[in-house]
Amino acid sequence: MVTVSVEGLSVALGRREVVAGVTARFDSGELVGIIGPNGAGKSTLVRAMLGLVPAHAGSVAIDGVAVGRMAARDRARALAYLPQGQTLHWPLDVERLVALGRLPHLAPLSRIGAEDRAAVAEAMARADVGHLSHRIATELSGGERARVMLARALAVGAQGLVVDEPLAALDPGHQIDVMELLAREAREGALVVTVLHDLTMAARYCDRLILMDQGRVVAEGAPAAVLTAETLRRVYGISAKVDLSGETPMVVPLGRV
Question: GO molecular function of the protein, one example (predicted)?
Fold first, then answer.
């Protein structure tokens, strides 16, 4: 179990405040989607939750411990992170790439052991990339690469998973694959936090949504409470057809207001 508590968090990049007074709580067993327009502060919020950017006001704690007081290794063991726009530069085979997720558990210059290899194999099975183990990662398709990078994050063995825009540049089928994987991790007890732009995917898979605009949380709750036509008009400046009544919720942008 892992809990992340954010209290009155504000973050400035240069002279611009990009996260302003955010308070939120994240618990194990839920898939939380962070949504909002471009520049709303979503990615900065999750980076601050991980201790990757400093706060100038407020606090973030993981299981009651302030992130600023945690060693980077301990933060990585608690919350695995997959940033947006991951680019592969080295022609590693998939198994070796996924094994990089074990680095928070290894001493300097040490080699992976039996426990690490078991964690890598389990992560690859959970992400359904075991059959790719000997492929060169730079030669994979976009959908394959997305699942491999998720496997690397899962290999950490953390109780929480933070994923920033995992659906970018994926076709609809691979988007479904990724969201099914994230939802399954949450159902099995992990805390999963993901930044999303696809509102239909957010409505369909997330247990809870946090809607940000101009650095602030403007709505929070179940998808049906957050994704209203009026809220989308006010925050995104769009008209939209919203149907969250069935088993396959849909949010279809219709045009600019």
Answer: ATP binding
Q: How many domains does the chain have?
A: 1
DSSP 104: G
Let me know the angle formed at the C-alpha of 177 by 163 and 120, rounded to the nearest 5 degrees.
65
Tell me which residue range forms the domain holding 167: 3-256
CATH number at residue 246: 3.40.50.300
β-sheet with 31-35: strand ranges across: 79-82, 160-164, 191-195, 31-35, 208-213, 216-221
Return the pLDDT at 89. 79
Is this structure's pTM higher than 0.90? yes
Would you state the pLDDT for residue 86?
Answer: 74
Q: Number of H helices and number of E strands within the chain?
A: 9, 12
Q: Assess contact for 48 and 19: CB atoms under 8 A.
A: yes
